[in-house]
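Hello Y.,

Per our agreement to keep a running log of every chain we model this quarter, I'm adding this entry. I've kept the format consistent with earlier entries: sequence first, then predicted structure.
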Amino acid sequence: MSDQRYLEDRDNFDEDDRTDDFFTFAEEEEDYEEPRGPLGPKLAAAGIMILASIFAIILLIGGIRTFNEARANEGYEGRSWVMTGTFEKVTSDLQGDSNVATYTGTLPDNTAMTGKTFISEIADPVQVNPGSTVEFRGSQTGTVSADFPETVDALLVQTGDANLTVVRTGEEGSLVPVTEDTVASQKRSAMLRLAGAILVFGVGVAGTFMMIRKRKSTEVLD
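Predicted structure for the entry above:
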């Protein structure tokens, strides 16, 4: 009988001992949990990277747009003029489901207009002279008349030796004749913006890396 009681007491002792060990181990895990460190440096690093990315994207988009404008102007150097267009009516867009506006304008009083053929894409080609009235499509798209400006700038260019056409329109005062300096300036602006995008992103990465290193150094010293 005593032996049986001895075995029961030993089993109860072992079970209590294991329970104590379990809770002691859990407490030790809590005591030795690795500190997470201050939240401020992490937020600062994330903020630097986010801001750098935003500015880099803005510069990148601007650079690509300016470069595309320069490419679109190539070939028109010294063979372009700007005239004013007045709203006439709304017509369907040949390249989409929306509508475009048609405008009328007066050709510049320039001898380069003499004997040229104006191609409008909305009527048959017609021979023109300085001061002739022509009709052309606008670049803006919309649905009803209220969606379109009453007056626009139209970039008139000479294609080939004897043809004239309007390649695009824009807000009044937004277009200028294309020159070699115009194209060169647009390309320089595009390259500067693209380089700026790379620089800003690089600074953001470097700043983020420095903040992370600073945080780790602070944690080591603590």
